[in-house]
Predict the structure.
Amino acid sequence: MAAGTLTPWLIEVVGSAAAVLGTLCWLPQSVKVIREKQTAGISLAANLMLLSAVSLWMIYGLLIGSWPLVLANAVSTTLVLTIVVMKIRYRHPQQTDRPAMTKGGNAPTPL
């Protein structure tokens, strides 16, 4: 189906659906990282590239005056930036099951 056979309203619906889905797809990952404070399975390089891409799309939207493009990519930028910040902050896994230190500074030896 060629774009010429679609109504402008239908074209806007398709674009809006893509913007909403493309933006909200990062919400579950952001929430998971914030809740669990664990980022071992997340690629920092991939998320930095994605952050660059959505930021540039947002700037492009500003330059051409496309507010739906700006809004969708501003939300995406915020969500992906959250993931990147948490990835950097929790780069090393937190150890919660460390043995307590003894008075001399050494951990007790297991039996």
Observations:
- The radius of gyration is 22 Å.
- DSSP finds four helices and no strands in the chain.
- The chain has a mean pLDDT of 85.
- The CA atoms of residues 5 and 11 lie 10 Å apart.
